Amino acid sequence: MMNTLKRVKIILALYNFLNKNKLRYQEALYEKFQIRKKYYNLISSKDFPPDTIIDHPWLDQQNSVINLIHNEDFKKLPVKLQLSILEWSSNGFAIFKSYFNEEKVERINEILKELLNKNKLYLKANRKIMHAIRYSEELKNLVNAPELLKVLNLIMGTEMELFQSVNFLKGSEDPPHSDFIHMSTFPYGYLIAVWIALEDINSDNGPLYYYPGSHKLPYIMNEDYITSGHKWWGYNNKQAYSKKIESVIIENRCEKKVFLASKGDLLIWHANMLHGGSKVNDLSLSRKSMVLHYYGKNSIRYHEITGRPALQY
């Protein structure tokens, strides 16, 4: 029922209007980019000026191997992290091995369990536990470490802001997708994700998979796969989107990699890098993990599929 209501555009528009104080942060950005809509109206890529005339994140435009080595902030990083992000421009991801120690990971798991037991969080049908960082300042501070944020700011070339967390107790089994279709920005690309292994991952509990270099493919927007709809009724387009992504992977011969992570490992990925969750072969196994999503502070934030602007909490 709720999913059906989310597709009724007039309900979405009313919801935005009632929450416009949480959207007011975008008002100056709409003016900056000459968006001819109210900041609380529904919005999509069709409402923006041509993306080709707008700046993208600096390492999307330049070669990280050449440019990072001359960057003063890069030089201050531990050598292990330098090597991890050096080929960001070509790979679209970075792996930080054992970045979070055992004590920190266990405390993250403990806090999540406490929040679930107190019914402050709940497990959704799609195996997701949403927005845990909104219910625990300690959890938010643990995962959003200043040292990590500095690396993300360096990669993106601008100040990034944590806005969402997603936890999993089991493997997601998500089909391949780009985060950008769900957490969209203008200018394009000002989103970055950090995936944290909260236990050891193996081939049976549904490991994450990804497609190196797929971030360089064109962004898939609504008009690239939607063929029907109505002025007041949104699109039931998950299957259409998945089929489009499948064809993109085949046409571009994208190579699939599986991430068999150890507890405390981090996988950081580009807004447009295709990824998903492998099949869970043993349903008795858990696959505890956490994903953090960061937006660029100076970008318009919205949901391309439904047209909802992103609320700021």
Automatic annotation (TrEMBL):
| Parts forming coiled coils | none
InterPro entries (UniProt xref): Phytyl_CoA_dOase-like
Pfam families the UniProt entry points to: PhyH
User: What is the protein name stated in its UniProt record?
Assistant: Phytanoyl-CoA dioxygenase
- Cofactors, names only: Fe(2+)
Q: Per its UniProt record, what Gene3D superfamilies does this chain match?
A: q2cbj1_9rhob like domain
Give the molecular function GO annotations. Answer: 2-oxoglutarate-dependent dioxygenase activity; iron ion binding
Database matches in SUPFAM superfamilies: Clavaminate synthase-like
Q: What is the organism field in this record?
A: Anditalea andensis
Q: Where is the signal peptide?
A: none
